[in-house]
Description:
The structure is a homodimer. By secondary structure, the first copy, chain A, is an alpha+beta fold.
Amino acid sequence: MSMFVNRRDLEFYLFDLFDTQALLEHERYSDYDRETVEAILDSAEQIANDKFYPCADKLDANEPLFVDGAVKVIPELNDALEAYAEAGFVAAGFPADAGGMQLPSVVCNAVSSLFTCANQAASNYMFLTAGAASMLRACADDALVEKYLGPMLEGRWFGTMCLSETQAGSSLADIRTQAVPRGDGSYALSGSKMWISGGEQPVSENIIHMVLAKLPDAPPGVRGISLFLVPKVRVNDDGSLGESNNIALAGLNHKMGQRGTTNCLLNFGENGETVGYLVGQEHQGLANMFHMMNDARIGVGLGAVMSGLAGYLYSLDYAKERRQGRKADAKDPTKPQVPIIEHADVKRMLLTQKAFVEGGQALIYYCSYLLDQQSIATSEAEAGKYHLLLELLTPVAKSWPSEYCLEANKLAIQVLGGYGYTRDYPVERFYRDNRLNHIHEGTHAIHGLDILGRKVRMANGAALQLLAAEMAPTLAAASEDAHLQGHADALQAAWQQILATIEAVLSSDDSERSLANATLFLNSFGHIVVGWLWLKQALTVADRDDAFSEGKRAACRFFFAYELPKACTDLDLVASLDDTCLSLTAEQLAG
Amino acid sequence: MSMFVNRRDLEFYLFDLFDTQALLEHERYSDYDRETVEAILDSAEQIANDKFYPCADKLDANEPLFVDGAVKVIPELNDALEAYAEAGFVAAGFPADAGGMQLPSVVCNAVSSLFTCANQAASNYMFLTAGAASMLRACADDALVEKYLGPMLEGRWFGTMCLSETQAGSSLADIRTQAVPRGDGSYALSGSKMWISGGEQPVSENIIHMVLAKLPDAPPGVRGISLFLVPKVRVNDDGSLGESNNIALAGLNHKMGQRGTTNCLLNFGENGETVGYLVGQEHQGLANMFHMMNDARIGVGLGAVMSGLAGYLYSLDYAKERRQGRKADAKDPTKPQVPIIEHADVKRMLLTQKAFVEGGQALIYYCSYLLDQQSIATSEAEAGKYHLLLELLTPVAKSWPSEYCLEANKLAIQVLGGYGYTRDYPVERFYRDNRLNHIHEGTHAIHGLDILGRKVRMANGAALQLLAAEMAPTLAAASEDAHLQGHADALQAAWQQILATIEAVLSSDDSERSLANATLFLNSFGHIVVGWLWLKQALTVADRDDAFSEGKRAACRFFFAYELPKACTDLDLVASLDDTCLSLTAEQLAG
């Protein structure tokens, strides 16, 4: 039915690879069973197909424009977002008592995947809204929640995250936006925010900005950051819209991809007062922001996977139709050309894409599933276990797809050849869209430092032990399977290499040097986690002999033969504490 | 002086790494010495700086448009190309008796690199013209040469290559364009040609298309292809322009990058007769085309390197200026932020770019230098030696930079972070420009099949032996150097692995299976050649202790520590004749 997603594969992750069925039997999700979940996916797929997919190319070719101080977008964007809001999907993951659908995270992310794969630029507005609403609900006092949450969950008001400033991108310690108490419990905001996705748009009635700013008495650095709710239009006590809150759009950034999502420079308090409301405690802004960071980062990973998947499925269809060349042993030019899917290197490019995008899907749904396990945990200890696992895996979920599903997009272009390089086909757009994911929600390098500098060490390595325990049943079962035994051995050896690498890093007393190759560690760690998830996929289909299962087995074999060895090669380097890069000076680079 | 090229580094390749001085002492180049060559480079750099670089962004943002059957371009493109032509650079590599400058290839490519780095899309028009002129001179009879060559070398008439058709991209055996004798020695052309770079433009007085087509009695396949000269405007006997030759522009392809180079669908003989002239013998068109293929393919590699270099130098400048974050051991937020070049991962991203783009430059100038050695060879045996070496290295020169300098462009974006993702900075354009180079002049996969299926086997492996002989002095000298000995050992081992891999491939009687991973072989082979060239660079500066030389040594160390091991990992796989990809079916991929 769908042009852009394989529902059978999606349900494989939900119901075969991970036990969403058991999750649905929990009382928290007792309104749902597999049938109702599938109906929700059907409904999401229908809207994605009818409203999101058809305008994706047009939205890219006609990006939002800044005309006379306002933003203009193509009308199809309004239609798509209205349909999404009307279906209630902004509130998909929120509890029923907040007006939400109370769906498990793994199902919410399956829904999101349908929209992202269809039209990432359009979907971003809705995910940002859900993220802002989630932070509001988790951190704000009842009065703020009462006033703002409802219209956001209904999708009448959209939300944004305002963190970065021109001088403070990766370094939030350096933000300068000020919030001065107005004496009535509210604050006057002044300053500029850069890179604000959805910061202005003509679609929703109001925009609720979640803004990081500093109080006049704030301590320096990240300990002095507070979080404020700052509406575009002030809201009266009865919930109706009042006057403008004087947030000026200073300009739109024109990006290489994800062009349909406006990206804004916003000025607060420049022409008249901009009023904001403290969310949570003073100086706790960053901690509050981190409440939803895991969700947002898994969301970035999901976006990267879905850009990759869109390219994979498109290039797969193309390769089955496009005829070019002949097999090496049948070169007779009077005979018809063969579909290019018959050429070995085209198969290699398709299988590489499959291994990355389906490995990435397994990773994302696994993390979502852990979020659900954390939500329904019956003890603090159990919840803590899932929290630790997620702390370890979130940098991987965000970063691994950004690297490898971008590579998948590169190969999708290559399968289409010259056609793929033109804007008549969407594969070059997917590649442009995906290039952002290395950069936002923490750059690739920052996640490398996070995992090697913090996450593998926390609680004395407890998260690593938990992950090893998660992998153990797969390794044990695969060791009993003649076809998978070799992979199990390879994975076990790679895991031992991870542990040895961490030991080498921890044993160094030069922290800068020991972290100098953290990005390589991040990629390799991700490869080992995804290798495990491929082994788990292969085990899941071990007794089935349809084409779907053969494809899963082939992708697993591919990952272990072509990819895992690269991770081991890079780990050797990380463990050697090589300082070639670190010891370099600017003068030497400039030459 | 230049914003986009490092002249010191350029002259390092020409005069330190390769002995262009000795070349200039040859009588063929006796008009030149180092001083005059530097003056030519100065003049090229001036035009590139003044005319090519300033309009590169504008040309990308305002791509040529198809309006009322004609092409419109920004006026700056005309100015740039006129300045190039007036300086005589189209004829840089042509002999004096043909009106050329008679410069060695290595100097011509140094000149080209200045223009390509400044503005690849504009430069393409001129390189295509030189390529078409070169083919004309090599293959056509005197009358055709007399009539057409002069205006092309003067840059008044531009040239194109018309090979592909919509159903015949990689598979030229399947072209359908017809050439029917008109009885007067000329031919009537009919058919469509796709992907024609520069196929229409409003800059030059005429366009000379070099067109592959089939005679009515042609045998099927590549043995039935002939080459024709087909002017856009017919040329009278006195050299003046006559009537239109009825070549219709059916449309422009809109690409993701290199947007300033028109890319056309051309129809021949649709509305009135299109007259063409046979170049060379009937049915020898592909062989004639291959006369200039080595040049063209080295040109593609050069373009890829220069896109990479442009990104490297831009991101290096940015990293020295942009302040963000603090060192791990000095996090005090009241202190100023540090330039990002001080962060270990930024250094890694810059050094990776340096290793790829300077390794790529060495590769390209080395191949150019071999072309020169071939030109001045005093015996057929000596010329044959250089010919064989070039046959082996041309797929590498075309393909290795397309892969690794694209990766460099990806990292240049990452160094700039969010800024790099916007169109306000050129690094995203370089990335888009470079993505083409995997595809044209033979796809990456085709060069993989070429090197593993043909080149390493030809003349009983003689080309491999010649390359080993070229590497031998470097290995011997490096083995005597305490700092480089380890690299020499690693390179020697990698070379043995190349030979063992080829032996494994040759010993298989399943040719499809043995070539199934040819693309990986191509990349690995390239890594070993570039590794050698890095060792040669490090040796060249072994006794110098300035920052330039330290940078070269660091990049060499980086390449051997971070990159060469990956090639060896992939060669293991190629040698194993893994058939995971090959044995896959379309059904299994679709799932």
